[in-house]
What does this fold into?
Amino acid sequence: MPDKVELILSSRKYIGSISRIHECIRVNIDCVVKSSRELIETTIKEYEDINGGESTGLYAIKTINNDRVPLFLSWDDVRLELIDKNPCIANHENRYVSGKCI
It folds into this structure.
């Protein structure tokens, strides 16, 4: 490792690498996440139909300890917003941003 390191370039490479890791994870879990969301949407719709449009009180139950987890899609909506907000940044180390007016 040299005594001096170009921090801006190193930081950009680091951010670009994290971005590529996130993209890889998103691609690898996409099928499972989409099918899970569809299953929850369908179950909520079925529960609403049975209960006159209300879905409050719908839970997934963990068989060990009988733990209950409420089923809502708001947590997944946040994931979708973050995907739109933070797309993969390719070649981040080759980009340059400046506040200077030209």
